[in-house]
Protein 1
Amino acid sequence: MLTPFRFERGPPVSIDTGRFARSNRTEAATAKKPSRVGGVAIWADERLGLGTAMKKNLRKVFPDHWSFMLGEIALWSFVVLLLTGVFLTLWFQPSMSEVTYEGSYDQLRGIQMSQAYASTLHISFEVRGGLLVRQMHHWAAMIFIAGMLIHLIRVFVTGAFRKPRELNWVIGCVLLLLGTLEGFTGYSLPDDLLSGTGLRAADGFMKATPVVGTYMSFFLFGGEFPGEVIIPRLYIAHVLLIPGLILALITAHMLLLVYHKHTQWPGPGRTEKNVVGFPMLPVYAAKAGGFFFVILGVVALMGGLLSLNPVWKYGPYDPSKVTAGSQPDWYMGWPDGALRIFPGWESHIFGTTWSWNVFLPIIVLPGLMFTVLVLLPFAEAWITGDKKEHHLLQRPRNAPTRTATMAALMTFYALLWMAGGNDIIAITFDLSINQITHVMRVAVFLGPIVAFLITKRWCISLQRSDQEKLLHGYETGIIMRSPEGGYSERHQPIDAARAYTLAARERDQIHTPPSTADDNGIPAPRSRRKALRAKLSERLYADNVQPPTREELEKAHHDAEHERELRAGLDHAADPHQFDGRHAVEGEELRSH
Amino acid sequence: MNTNLPAERSREVEADPIANPGLPAHTWRPTDVDPHAERRAERQVALLFGLSAVCTLGFLVSYFALSIGEGGDTFLNLGASTVALGLFMSGAFLFMGIGVIQWARKLMSDQEITEERHAAASPQEDRDATLEALSAGLEESGIGRRSLVRNSLLGAMALIALPPIVLLRDLGPLPGDALTRTIWTRGMRIARDVLGTPIRPSDMEIGDLINAEPEAIFEVDDNGEHVIEGAELQVAKSKSAVVVVRMEPDEIIPGPGRENWSVAGIVAYSKICTHVGCPISLYERTTHHLLCPCHQSTFDLADAGKVIFGPAARALPQLPITVDDEGYLVARSDFTEPVGPSFWERDSE
């Protein structure tokens, strides 16, 4: 079989590719006589009957894009967490019984400490590779949560959460919440001075809950803080309860992903009705499997070289001590920041104390933010009235309000996170902690609004730029001088595939407010809700640039053609492509570069 | 339905303004058509797998050759063993992963294939059949008709949720008044933290701060065993820790009724922050400010422990002190209010 092909810089040649095309066919070759693998498959199928399910799924198509890998980071780091976590449980003793340390770390020898802390030191100093695995476990936890957050941002700004994937978005949100809890219960286990300080603060948070707070604290700690049951209780939550839930939800997340098939970017041949990409076997099995090893390798590198949570430096927990610069792990930083900048409000009513200064920022705010996160897809679908299924992703610029919403949320998160390090910022930059706190109190309200407005206008500008490319072509950088002496830049049409990709997007639907009454003067049912929806839809989407219609495109191209004809005699004879580096021009090599 | 409703309009599928040019033609990679490139790629992949194997061997060698234990932070703040194991393990995994990905990219088919999507919803006939089965099942169960059975079931189900909740009752004792008292009592000596020695006013210079505990924390019985130990000790420490500071007596603005709570410019305050309970001891002697390292609440120890900055809402509780017959600092009584973070039952009026 002769197939014409060309290398990137070279003339087209014909090469016999028949012998290669065998590996490039779209369906698997059927074996005449079962191979050894086939034999095993038949044995299994006669018992499990997986043949039917596997028929489609072995060669299931996954589209390719770097951003689809972000969720995989979270997935694989969770597997690393399971593996390293099992290793740690072989030595860790979740007990608060007091022992005298007799291990190999000089500075703490002879000191009273809990068994949890002593066994953590044992893992760190006496078990070979123990410190490595302990640090890998902690780094993987940080990557797990960071991976989930970045994956969440990707899914949101590309519109991948839209119907039919809303429930998978909700599952993802719950996973983020569980991952955070899992992280907190995990770093509280070593019972060092820092982790104990975190638990003590958590005790304070619980006590601030009206009516039931004190009971929550006494039931969780088995009496007064710190008691002697909190570490074993957190341990079982950390190694069984929460990871079990996470595992179940990840399974559901993956099954829904397989059922819905992955979203894809629009492009030539890629539509709402199909999915274009590489087959699971062998390409994705290899790429995803290889990526698991890459994540493992990166985590091992971090665990081996980057010191994290050196609990032996903090010492055992002592409720009368604390170190300066005590901070939670980074993903707990934002509610801690809210806690730091919140004004000291407290109400005393009828012999009770209502601790708004703790309850609002650390109990109510995270719950509120979580609720907002979960409701985002449903809120958007309600305002747009969109009930269609969507499998093509949207570029962030093509949903300016949505992208701006994420920018506002990210700014809110980032500012609170910074506030959570206000003492570190004050020391590092030699600033007044009081001023930082005052500035932050204003910034957390203003920052998201500013971020929303800037992002929205920015997206719309990018949309205009795309529109310009579609209607008038790209800027070649060639300045033309007319006989009259005027200068203009030559535009060239973009290629068909790119033009299709830019134009293949949906138009925003702006609602018109319904008339409040029908002909007989009877108010339409639920008209106030509809009016609100119409108003929101206009406010949020009316400024967006809509893709050109076929007529607009034709007219623009016609005009450009007309102009080119008019100027045909006046133009420079050279090919306008010669300076833009996109095409080589025969005999003009010196002018291209 | 009114087809002018926006939701209806948006359902219409719009034709793309530019016709779909279809999937671009597949282009062959050098490894598909050039046997040299293909074999080079094979060698690259094999080399990566080989490097992975070398790292695995390196891991095994360093596991047995390098000692752990003493000098756990000789190298990069970590032990040589940890660093070597980490590097070799990382190499083994990374080379393996990169090798497999290189294999996939260079040698496996890069021909994109297309799969049709299906709607997430089931086909209409399946849905109808399911709904029919559901209603048939419900009908046969009689749950709609037999309201007595149904309602008694619902009632029993609601009750059956109670035992699992009640079973959790023994997770901990009821709070009672535990949070309102500490082990401080009238006449209990104030002892230096860690050392456990009592303090005479003359031991303290103006500007000094001493972290202190009630003497009972350090009390031992006839056999030399601590009287308070284990969890009880941790609870006691978490509530009764105090900071003792000495300042010029005329700098103190005593709270109402607290005129005799200090001794020669020496005052004692709870060390437990009234915000969420961190122990505080970042003291600025010229201003008498005490700053909590957790959330930066700042208290003025010259002015009845009032909050002057930060998220805390209440002043630090003050421990009334005096000196005993032997001239040591002692408590006049327990704290007159609960120490530590606020809780709902706390009477703060």
Note: Chain A has a mean pLDDT of 89.
Protein 2
Amino acid sequence: MNVQYAMVIDSARCFDCKACVIACQIANGVPPGSYRNWIKGATVGDLGEMHFQPGNCMHCEDPTCVQACPTGATYRDEKDGTIKVNDGLCINCGSCVPACPYGARYRHPEKKVVDKCNFCEEHRARGESPACVQVCPTKARTFGNILDPGSEVARLLRTSKTVKVVNKKTDTKPNISYLSGTAPMDWPVEARSPAYSELWRKIAGPVVKGLAGITGLGVLVMLGKQLMVGDTPPAFTHEKHKEDFHG
Amino acid sequence: MGKKMIKRHTAVSIFMHWFNAVCWFFLLATGVGLIRNSDLDPIGGWWPEMMRGIFGGGENLLSAHVVCGSLWIVVFLLFTLVRLRKEVGFFIREIFTFSPANDILWIIKKGIQMTMGYRMLARLGFEPKIPEQGFYNIGQKLFAIPAMLGGIVIAATGIVMYSSKSMTMDPAIVQWSILIHFVMAGIVFAGLLIHIYMASIAAGELPALLSMFTGTVPEEYAEHHHKKWYDEIK
């Protein structure tokens, strides 16, 4: 893979205008009340000044959402390093929603699939930047391929001090970096897997495999006995008793 | 003794048996292929990869599974509606009829004989003759019951999962449906292994296999294997 799309965000430039949130909703058909991106707020410094922090799906290297998906509908696209949802394969079970530390996923009320940021795949196909990047009046968001040394994101990562916003218990290795000094830092939550998948992984899976294994083994034992020992009851040699011994 | 043949299965029963068998294999193969998750897949990631390769992607695999499953449900519903007073009612009545003392002894003796042979059976102090059975023996019933009830649960949970693509449901209902669907299919699959062996490979069972094509069994076979049924129809 020689493409890994990523963002570097200078949150000090953000003044909470929410142009990125609205542009995203319009560009991607995100219904009112649902969001693919956000602006978090925090008070900083002795005077309690407001600091705003834009964000969206972090397109993580270690995506807990992909691990939570039972069907493989949520996957990492190896072509560009983005995390995507295959709508045709998603059954809207929502397993991935609590698995994201950033709350970047929601169940789309009309499309009946889980929806999330895909770095505006359609825009990129036309050679444009994602809608949130294009519309930002202060250019707080920089988007590009971090594996291309000549890209703006790669240059920013080389020349500036950056941080990643992660939950200490679930570091998913996000691909969004912030220029240091961003706030808030402590908001991502621990990734949770739903109760059913824990039960499946720990108990139901081993039990089903064990049951099929034992019956399979039983069949092999019966087959082995049939082939090697034969299946004739001793009394079968006496023709007159034959009828008594059939199963 | 002549080879007099006795009617055992109707043409409708035979069709439903093989229709069910083909659907089961297809649904099992595609269903296991739909679990693409290293924590959950029962036989490893190679199977979902292979199935997606064959069907040209996960969406097509899911569609094929849904189409076959829907056909399976519709045909079984029609079968039940049209033939409730014939094969379906008879089947349900038979598989839920037990004679416990007889049946338990049958399972013990047949189990020992099938795995360890007649000599071990004799060494443990059992007579070689096993208890008389009806149209189905208790082994067949113990597979038929989970196969039928499991089939209903599998169909219901499958409908929930597919409906989730067109109506918003509580995620917990969809998630538990996935697990229950998997577990029930696994239980029936375990029984299926024994069913296939007992009905097609085990010694002395060739007439039973043939009857699933011809509908008839030799009179001698019926008397020896299903004495109570034979006595009823004689």
Note: Chain A has six helices and ten strands.
